């Protein structure tokens, strides 16, 4: 779905302009996004398998929830919205713990040049929380142990969306410090 997003400068400051997400990706315009990592107090993390029709990394395992922030939308409100849309869980802003803002630049194709400031959050859930996946975006959801996640990263990362190992390590360390 094409939506309006705020355009940021190279330092992550709002420029006061907006563009459709497709235009931002085509021209490589910086814009804000969110990642929300869901974990349990007993050391599991929720992974999302991207939908088969996704333009980038179809069927790869990824962060629990990811998405674009709509134009004029607060970052935390966008994170709460994305969690509801992608996994059907109602959160409050106070359920989110911000751990990072990460600048990313990745050219996937001639029409997709991701240049984003990614706001990363953690949220604790119960493993028994009812999850309702967004059919057009999400192929599957799976709770896995942190040890299994580490194994995916360091031994067989072919099933994961390619991110730096350091970025994944920061997530694991952040979750471990909270369980």
TrEMBL record:
PROSITE patterns: NUDIX, NUDIX_BOX
Entry keyword annotation includes 4Fe-4S: no
Limits of the Nudix hydrolase domain: 29-173
Keywords of the record: Hydrolase
Protein name: NUDIX domain-containing protein
């Amino acid at each position: 779905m094409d939506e309006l997003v705020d355009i940021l400068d190279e330092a992550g400051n709002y420029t006061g302009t907006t563009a459709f997400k497709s235009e931002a990706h085509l021209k490589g315009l910086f814009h804000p996004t969110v990642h929300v990592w869901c974990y349990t107090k007993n050391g599991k993390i929720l992974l999302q398998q991207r939908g088969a029709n996704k333009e980038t990394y179809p069927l790869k395992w990824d962060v629990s929830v990811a998405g674009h922030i709509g134009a004029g939308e607060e970052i935390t409100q966008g994170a709460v919205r994305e969690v509801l849309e992608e996994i059907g869980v109602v959160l409050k802003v106070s359920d989110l713990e911000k751990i990072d803002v990460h600048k990313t630049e990745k050219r996937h194709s001639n029409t997709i040049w991701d240049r984003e400031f990614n706001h990363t959050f953690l949220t604790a859930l119960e493993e028994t929380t009812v999850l309702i996946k967004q059919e057009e975006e999400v192929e599957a959801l799976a709770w896995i142990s942190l040890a299994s996640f580490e194994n995916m990263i360091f031994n067989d990362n072919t099933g994961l969306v390619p991110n730096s190992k350091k970025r994944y390590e920061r997530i694991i360390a952040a979750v471990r410090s909270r369980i």
